[in-house]
Design brief:
Blueprint (H helix, E strand, L loop, with lengths): L5 E6 L2 E6 L10 H15 L6 E6 L10 H6 L8 H20 L4 E5 L2 E3 L1 H8 L2 E5 L3 E3 L10 H7 L5 H10 L3 E2 H7 L4 E3 L4 H13 L3 H15 L3 H16 L2 H11 L8
Parallel strand pairs: 2-3, 3-4, 4-6, 5-7, 6-9
Antiparallel strand pairs: 1-2, 7-8
Helix pairs in contact: 1-3, 4-5, 9-10
Length: 262
């Protein structure tokens, strides 16, 4: 069934979304892009969801775009020009949706994350990977420079390291990906799901309003110059201070007790 392309399990405020095309290494087909966009939009609007985990079924997290589907797109009078422009626009919209969601999104990565799959990891707010996972923006190996994955990659790691990956098509392992800042940490494969959920539950245990305010401000200030960023985040903190639950949280800390958050 079409809805099985993506599965979702919700527990204690954490939604675990699993790309479910294992036979295609969870490639970002037209159907997968649509399913991810629709489901993430719905989760973003759900006030009971505090954290989202994005994972992949089978042997890999995500192998990027579906190349067979892309090649089939050439069978038009314009040679695929309209299709390709629309495809990359839809993919770009998904990548912009993730940081705009109110909830933190954590990538749970294993196997490989290549091209647009690596872009997806870089786009998520955090990422935990199994030891041995391989990451690459390797489109250049088949004559297609990973220009759209480059956007997310260069906002996660240093420019020289990003350019080397983009121009050589070489892969890095989870240890190197951690050093570069592409992922938060690498863990044993048999601990991947548990460690990712533990991180999600830690965040889910914080004041939801504060985390949502903070995520929005995090991305907003990153686009500003220093003075504007301080001015903006100062206003954000002042608004945060005026929340009833923030007052309760500080009072509880001073009184050495657990906060009674609504």
């Amino acid at each position: 069934m079409e809805d099985e392309i993506l599965t979702c399990d919700v527990s204690e405020g954490v939604a675990r979304l699993v790309m479910n095309r294992p036979g295609k290494l969870n490639a970002l087909s037209d159907a997968m892009l649509a399913a991810l966009t629709d489901r993430l939009t719905a989760l973003g609007a759900d006030p009971d969801i505090r954290v989202i985990i994005l994972a992949g079924a089978g042997k890999a997290f995500c192998a990027g775009h579906d190349l067979k589907e892309m090649q089939a797109g050439r069978a038009t009078l314009d040679g695929g020009a309209a299709y390709f422009n629309d495809l990359f626009a839809r993919c770009g919209a998904l990548m912009q949706l993730i940081p705009s969601l109110p909830q933190p999104v954590i990538a749970e990565v294993h196997g490989i994350a290549t091209a647009a799959g690596c872009q997806l990891v870089a786009t998520c707010d955090m990422a935990v990977a199994a030891e041995g996972t391989r990451f690459g923006v390797n489109g250049v190996n088949i004559g297609l420079f990973c220009s759209t994955p480059m956007v997310a990659l260069t906002r996660n790691i240093g420019r020289k390291a990003a350019f080397e990956l983009l121009t050589t098509g070489q892969f890095v392992d989870a240890a190197r990906a951690t050093e570069l800042g592409l992922i938060n940490r690498a863990v044993p494969h048999d601990r991947l799901q548990a460690e990712t959920r533990a991180l999600a539950q830690t965040i889910a245990g914080k004041l939801t309003a504060a985390v949502r305010i903070g995520k929005a401000a995090f991305y907003e200030q990153a686009q500003m110059d220093l003075a504007e960023a301080y001015s903006h985040t100062g206003r954000v903190m002042a608004d945060n201070m005026l929340l009833r639950d923030t007052d309760e949280g500080i009072t509880a800390f001073l009184e050495k007790r657990s906060p009674d958050w609504a």
